[in-house]
Design a protein that fits this description.
Elements lengths: L9 H26 L1 H94 L4 H12 L8 E3 L1 H14 L3 H18 L7 E3 L21 H25 L4
Antiparallel strand pairs: 1-2
Helix pairs in contact: 1-2, 2-5, 3-6, 4-5
Length: about 250
């Protein structure tokens, strides 16, 4: 048998032709779309939208740069404010230290002023007291002189009470501006010198009449035993007063 000849199937050919026709129509449609006025308008719209979006992107990028620059400037400003704060805090600390130093100086000056006023009032009292004989001075003189002929009565002498009485009188004689400090001085005297309150001197009755012969003492009354005793007692009174006077002079604020 002879070789069999293959003939194309018409159904396949028709499919191919249909595909080619569809491709051609698609190409024509794309061509028509691209080159028609509607397509050109659509392309222009897309281009304008793209340009607008690019402008917005550029604006956003510029805004971002502005924000970054503003942040950087704010950070610099914040750093500057932090430095100013640290500097101001240092100045405040220095001012507080200076204020404390000034307050201490004022306190020291006040204490010095009080101490100076205290010393001044104390010296005023001493000067005033030195101008007149005290009760103890008068008593010592009377004991040392009255034993002969006039006589000295027996008595108990408490130098502290007599000296304190004299001080109180001198304080009362101070000017009004010094009286408050005078009271302080008197209180300090009682506090710091109060131990002298225990001194008590017993004075016996002593009398030698003027009719008694002093020939045994070469007519010198100071050699008489009663005179010697009277002088010793007067010296005890003076010593007690001197001790209180020395204590008063050494009073401290």
């Amino acid at each position: 048998m002879g070789q069999e000849t293959h003939r194309p199937e018409w159904g396949n050919i028709s499919q191919i032709v249909s595909a080619l026709c569809a491709l051609a129509l698609t190409i024509l449609a794309i061509y028509g779309f691209l080159f028609s006025k509607t397509s050109q308008a659509f392309v222009s719209y897309l281009q304008s939208e793209l340009a607008l979006r690019n402008i917005r992107i550029t604006s956003l990028e510029q805004t971002e740069k502005d924000l970054q620059r503003s942040i950087a400037e704010s950070q610099v400003s914040l750093s500057s404010l932090t430095e100013q704060k640290v500097r101001l805090e240092g100045q405040i600390a220095d001012l507080e230290m200076a204020q404390q130093a000034y307050a201490k100086q004022v306190q020291e000056l006040g204490a010095q002023l009080v101490g100076t006023t205290f010393s001044l009032v104390r010296e005023k009292v001493l000067v005033s007291k030195a101008t007149l004989l005290s009760e103890l001075d008068v008593l010592g003189l009377k004991i040392q002189t009255d034993w002969y002929d006039k006589g000295v009565p027996a008595q108990t002498v408490r130098p502290w009470q007599s000296y304190l009485k004299t001080l109180q009188k001198k304080m009362a004689d101070l000017g009004e501006a010094d009286r408050a400090m005078g009271k302080t001085v008197l209180d300090k005297f009682v506090q710091q010198c109060g131990s002298l309150n225990s001194v008590v001197i017993e004075v016996p009755a002593m009398r030698v009449t003027s009719s008694e012969s002093l020939s045994a003492y070469d007519y010198n009354i100071d050699r008489h035993p009663v005179g010697i005793r009277a002088k010793a007692i007067a010296n005890q009174i003076r010593k007690a007063e001197d001790d209180m006077q020395a204590c008063f002079k050494s009073l401290s604020q």
